[in-house]
Design goal:
401 residues, 11 helices, 10% strand, 5 strands
Length: 401
């Protein structure tokens, strides 16, 4: 259907020009001489100008000017009194050029319409003469000029209408593209958040399980009674991770409201679990705890979880971790300092991508900030510092994902 409409739009003006030429030649057949039939040439020229008005506007205007100048200089080429209406072809050409041509050609058509109007008025003045005095030719020239300028104005109005319609169409396309981009961005953000949650949950639980299993293998000969306790810790870590993954998967398909997420009340269990996994953890709190939103509490929990997991994974030998929670300011100032036996500056861990990035993003969404870096004075020490304000933040930033 669109292809047919495109063909019809392209062929309309050529067909209209050919029809114009054919009808006028047939209508003026009795006035065309048999010996040298040149009277049909002006009709053909105007018909060709109509056909080329949209495709080649400059050529169309040239044909009009050439036809009018020839008639002005050669009276034998002029239209007879009964065929004066053939000049309406010039009206169509000017209107077409004003509607579809570029700006410069459109302004050229305006100037040409005034000049051609004067010429056509002079040619046709004996037929349009209102009085017998000199005012007759002037009136004819003014009338023809007004008609052609009005034709240009109507064509320009069509141009403005088409331009407005094209602008609205482009605006709709841009709006659709923006909506599609927003949807893609939302999907990408959700995927990244899901990947971050899975990373936090699985990296922590697997690190604990691996550390406990390695400890059980190391102590199975010296302390076989410790194996049962280690297995219980492994089972507990696995069950908790499965529970968090179940909540996460449910929140992807249903509303997260009503689901439970780790909060500050779960930090003590997290610290105890990491102690049983081999970390020497010291947890110190200053001041009275202030209320945090659910999203902020989840951010604090995940930051601590990731910091302790990294200390467990990348520490070589006994690793000492000191957690400091300071509530004495306008929010929670959190510090996690892990000291390993190996020189982290010489053997840097490979977790400075998603782990650190995820903690930084969680702190930002909670309204605060986070910094994670090696200690300049002691290359064995890695420091994570974060701040989560207690002031209310935007709801979108505090809703757990």
């Amino acid at each position: 259907m669109r292809h047919t409409l495109r063909i019809a739009k392209t062929a309309f003006l050529p067909v209209a020009g050919a029809t114009f030429t054919l009808l006028w030649i047939i209508g003026a057949a009795n006035t065309i001489s048999a010996a040298l039939p040149v009277e049909w040439i002006p009709y053909a020229a105007l018909g060709l100008a109509i056909a080329l008005g949209r495709l080649l506007p400059v050529s169309a205007l040239g044909l009009v000017v050439a036809t009018v100048l020839t008639q002005l200089l050669l009276p034998g080429w002029r239209f007879l009194e009964t065929n004066t209406a053939a000049y309406l072809g010039i009206v169509f050409v000017i209107g077409i050029v004003a509607a579809f041509a570029p700006k410069r050609i459109r302004m050229l058509a305006l100037a040409m319409s005034a000049l051609v109007g004067l010429a056509v008025g002079a040619i046709a003045s004996p037929r349009w003469q209102i009085a017998s005095d000199v005012s007759g030719p002037i009136a004819s020239m003014v009338l023809a000029t007004v008609v052609f300028v009005v034709a240009w104005a109507l064509g320009f109005a069509v141009h403005l209408f088409l331009e407005r319609d094209t602008g609205l169409h482009r605006a709709r396309l841009l709006e659709d593209e923006v909506v599609a981009a927003e949807l893609e961005l939302a999907i990408a953000i959700e995927r990244d958040r899901t990947a971050q949650d899975v990373h936090d949950i699985m990296a922590h639980s697997l690190s604990v399980i691996v550390a406990q299993a390695d400890g059980a293998l190391f102590l199975q000969d010296q302390r076989p009674e410790a194996t049962s306790e280690t297995l219980r810790t492994i089972a507990k870590s696995g069950r908790e991770s499965l529970g968090e993954l179940r909540v996460l998967l449910q929140s992807l398909s249903t509303s997260p409201e009503g689901h439970s997420y780790p909060s500050l009340t779960d930090v003590d269990d997290l610290v105890e679990r990491m102690r049983k996994s081999g970390l020497n953890v010291t947890d110190v709190t200053f001041g009275e705890a202030s209320p945090l939103t659910a999203g902020q509490q989840l951010a604090v929990y995940r930051i601590l979880q990731e910091s302790l997991t990294n200390a467990l994974k990348h520490g070589c030998g006994p690793t000492i971790v000191r957690i400091t929670r300071d509530w004495r300011g306008p929010g929670l100032a959190l510090s996690v300092v892990s000291t390993a036996s190996l020189d982290l500056a010489k053997s840097p861990p490979r977790h400075f991508s998603r782990g650190i990035t995820g903690m930084t993003e969680r702190a930002r969404l909670a309204g605060g900030w986070l910094a994670a870096e090696l200690d300049d004075e002691d290359p064995r020490r890695f420091i994570v510092t974060a701040f989560i304000p207690t002031m209310p933040v935007h709801e979108d930033a505090t809703t757990p994902r």
